[in-house]
Amino acid sequence: MRIMVQKYGGTSVKGLERMRLVLARIQKAHQEGFKVVVALSAMSGETNRLLDMAKEFSPNPDPAELDVLVTTGEQASVALFAMLCKDAGLRARSLLGFQIPITTNSNFCRARIMDIDTQRLRGLLEDYDVLVVAGFQGVDCLGRLTTLGRGGSDTTGVALAAALEAEVCEIYTDVNGVYTTDPNLCSNARKLDRISYDEMLEFSSMGAKVLQIRSVEFAKKFNVPVRVRSTFTDDPGTLVTLEDTEMEDVLVSGIAYDKDQCRITVRNVMDRPGVAAAIFAPIAEAGILVDMIIQNTGREGRTDMTFTISRGNLDKTLAILEKLKPEIGAAEIQHDTNVCKVSVIGVGMRSHSGVASMMFTILKKENINILMIATSEIKITCLIEEKYLELAVRTLHDAFGLSQAPTPAC
Amino acid sequence: MRIMVQKYGGTSVKGLERMRLVLARIQKAHQEGFKVVVALSAMSGETNRLLDMAKEFSPNPDPAELDVLVTTGEQASVALFAMLCKDAGLRARSLLGFQIPITTNSNFCRARIMDIDTQRLRGLLEDYDVLVVAGFQGVDCLGRLTTLGRGGSDTTGVALAAALEAEVCEIYTDVNGVYTTDPNLCSNARKLDRISYDEMLEFSSMGAKVLQIRSVEFAKKFNVPVRVRSTFTDDPGTLVTLEDTEMEDVLVSGIAYDKDQCRITVRNVMDRPGVAAAIFAPIAEAGILVDMIIQNTGREGRTDMTFTISRGNLDKTLAILEKLKPEIGAAEIQHDTNVCKVSVIGVGMRSHSGVASMMFTILKKENINILMIATSEIKITCLIEEKYLELAVRTLHDAFGLSQAPTPAC
């Protein structure tokens, strides 16, 4: 049995005309001899409509009930699309998360998939040409509905492909694939034919909205080749796959950025063991993700601690720090929301040195001051003033020659 | 454990303000020491919105997928209402049909409840003050979603009350109770304090939209006292209950009518055994409900067959009859949509004769011609021209003295 998984995002299923395009793709795969498992998102706008409704009803909606509410979005998509499939003569049916089941933990609103009943799915694929699966949703071991977090339908698609050992997992969206950088910022951004899982992880963690980061982790873990492509064109898209030597020959694959940044500096805290833990443990307990952290070399028993968080968490974080002031002996707490992150990403960095200093030189030429630096094996990130964002991205994109397809090394 | 079931219709849950009224009622019951099981409909308008969407996608939507689609309406209601309950400090959660489960047969779009897992519900009532159950929906033995037909939330409410042996089952709607006739037609219609199951069945089958007919059958079968009342007033409503001698003293309890009628006459069919079966079997197979049937005394081996159906089934029925013409030897098929049914209803008829002739006399006085007559133990129905409907209802209502509360017989 040849199995293909296709996942379609909200813009691809919004309305009858677009769903007909999706149907055409599925009929094609069916004619090519595939059993097709289709994971669908809610129609675009629907999840936000439901969240707004919840907010009207409750200032802080119960997460379990919120999941009961928002799963209706995907439920409507799969019902309508299964109708279309049946009218087109395909043996098709919808499947909700609990019907497979896609079992998750009980972490409502951001649950993790624990298990997919593969045997049941394979049994259904004997009887049906097309299974239309509701993305984003699962069920916990007590039978309560859960959701996988924003973009979770990507993870549903990849997890289904992994569980069924599908030949291909195609993620259909409204862009042609993964680009060297945001085409809205940089007109000569180039679509990548292939990208490694690790690079895609770095792109996703920078807020590039092509794939949910957890779906990439899943794909990497189970080695699922994922093709990101557009519902509306015939472009083959971008293949997210295992790293190979050809990829390593490319120094930098792309430039990512993140505007949702905010820098906090805690001045003159006591420079003694445990002070970092004293600051960051309460922040972590509040569910706030800290990104970059810098601790200056201390002077006279005192040091400065600087870190970044997303802007939505600023007020909560400041309140926590204010309470901690006496305990950590901090003199002052400063914050700055006019900052952003810009990163160069590439698996080639693993074997090539000098990328970091090239990046700093390029930024310096444009007189862009670097506020913080963080590095990983395949990424270098600089925090800069937000007003320089577009300039930094375009300059780095040009300087690393990303608008040109790389020529294979001889 | 004192258990109360309350069911709220679509107008009672449409929007935050109305749901707050529902919440107040539930808090009151909770304070009185009840565990409350609340069955909710979809917000009014929502089911129609979903059905219209389905029609846009498919001329004849797959019934199983239609159920997946329309169940989202109740799902949204229960999630939002459970949020409200939790914010109000009640221990509450939502329950979908499959989570209880409410098991039905697989007759999609008009399924029947086969079983309710009472033990599980009682277990949940140990942990929760309020269980918010999605009305209208169930799950078949294969785990597919089903719905109970229009008005099915009433049946959910009554079935839950029966399964849990609840003290009371209150059906909240936007009217104060059951009236002697439609108050829109007859300004001196009087609200009934009590009505028997059998009378309520006749009212419901006549299209009075107060209770789904199946919920009344259920209530009768399990002897569940049902109180029909308004969410928006403090009126105690109407108690639907077992017949007692006091009720039998009342000759006529109410006047019902049904405008959705259409009369078909098949002229000059062969008057031989089996001709009725030959006509009505194919109509029944097409899922069309035939209501009144009259076969005239035959002459010269020929007879006329007259019957009524709902107007929506006219074209389908005529097509079936046209095909049958040669087989049944019919000369002509006539139809008339300008007709309606009017009925007098009362358990008192069981022990009092003469109601039928009183009805005929009253109609004759107003020069209203009777086209067809049908009788049951507690109902007399006349088919009349539609233009006389209001006149007939008002005249019968007055003549049987229904605007006055009955005085108990000495």
TrEMBL record, chains A, B:
<comment type="pathway">
    <text>Amino-acid biosynthesis; L-lysine biosynthesis via DAP pathway; (S)-tetrahydrodipicolinate from L-aspartate: step 1/4.</text>
</comment>
<feature type="binding site">
    <location>
        <begin position="7"/>
        <end position="10"/>
    </location>
    <ligand>
        <name>ATP</name>
    </ligand>
</feature>
<dbReference type="InterPro" id="IPR045865">
    <property type="entry name" value="ACT-like_dom_sf"/>
</dbReference>
<dbReference type="InterPro" id="IPR002912">
    <property type="entry name" value="ACT_dom"/>
</dbReference>
<feature type="binding site">
    <location>
        <begin position="173"/>
        <end position="174"/>
    </location>
    <ligand>
        <name>ATP</name>
    </ligand>
</feature>
<keyword id="KW-0028">Amino-acid biosynthesis</keyword>
<dbReference type="GO" id="GO:0005524">
    <property type="term" value="F:ATP binding"/>
</dbReference>
<dbReference type="InterPro" id="IPR036393">
    <property type="entry name" value="AceGlu_kinase-like_sf"/>
</dbReference>
<feature type="binding site">
    <location>
        <begin position="209"/>
        <end position="210"/>
    </location>
    <ligand>
        <name>ATP</name>
    </ligand>
</feature>
<feature type="binding site">
    <location>
        <position position="74"/>
    </location>
    <ligand>
        <name>substrate</name>
    </ligand>
</feature>
<dbReference type="InterPro" id="IPR041740">
    <property type="entry name" value="AKii-LysC-BS"/>
</dbReference>
<comment type="similarity">
    <text>Belongs to the aspartokinase family.</text>
</comment>
<dbReference type="Pfam" id="PF22468">
    <property type="entry name" value="ACT_9"/>
</dbReference>
<feature type="binding site">
    <location>
        <position position="179"/>
    </location>
    <ligand>
        <name>ATP</name>
    </ligand>
</feature>
<dbReference type="InterPro" id="IPR005260">
    <property type="entry name" value="Asp_kin_monofn"/>
</dbReference>
<dbReference type="InterPro" id="IPR001048">
    <property type="entry name" value="Asp/Glu/Uridylate_kinase"/>
</dbReference>
<comment type="pathway">
    <text>Amino-acid biosynthesis; L-threonine biosynthesis; L-threonine from L-aspartate: step 1/5.</text>
</comment>
<dbReference type="GO" id="GO:0009090">
    <property type="term" value="P:homoserine biosynthetic process"/>
</dbReference>
<dbReference type="GO" id="GO:0009088">
    <property type="term" value="P:threonine biosynthetic process"/>
</dbReference>
<dbReference type="Pfam" id="PF00696">
    <property type="entry name" value="AA_kinase"/>
</dbReference>
<dbReference type="InterPro" id="IPR054352">
    <property type="entry name" value="ACT_Aspartokinase"/>
</dbReference>
<dbReference type="GO" id="GO:0005829">
    <property type="term" value="C:cytosol"/>
</dbReference>
<dbReference type="InterPro" id="IPR018042">
    <property type="entry name" value="Aspartate_kinase_CS"/>
</dbReference>
<dbReference type="InterPro" id="IPR001341">
    <property type="entry name" value="Asp_kinase"/>
</dbReference>
<keyword id="KW-0457">Lysine biosynthesis</keyword>
<feature type="domain" description="ACT">
    <location>
        <begin position="344"/>
        <end position="410"/>
    </location>
</feature>
<dbReference type="GO" id="GO:0009089">
    <property type="term" value="P:lysine biosynthetic process via diaminopimelate"/>
</dbReference>
<keyword id="KW-0808">Transferase</keyword>
<dbReference type="Pfam" id="PF01842">
    <property type="entry name" value="ACT"/>
</dbReference>
<feature type="binding site">
    <location>
        <position position="47"/>
    </location>
    <ligand>
        <name>substrate</name>
    </ligand>
</feature>
<feature type="domain" description="ACT">
    <location>
        <begin position="264"/>
        <end position="338"/>
    </location>
</feature>
<keyword id="KW-0547">Nucleotide-binding</keyword>
<dbReference type="GO" id="GO:0004072">
    <property type="term" value="F:aspartate kinase activity"/>
</dbReference>
<keyword id="KW-0418">Kinase</keyword>
<keyword id="KW-0067">ATP-binding</keyword>
<protein>
    <recommendedName>
        <fullName>Aspartokinase</fullName>
        <ecNumber>2.7.2.4</ecNumber>
    </recommendedName>
</protein>
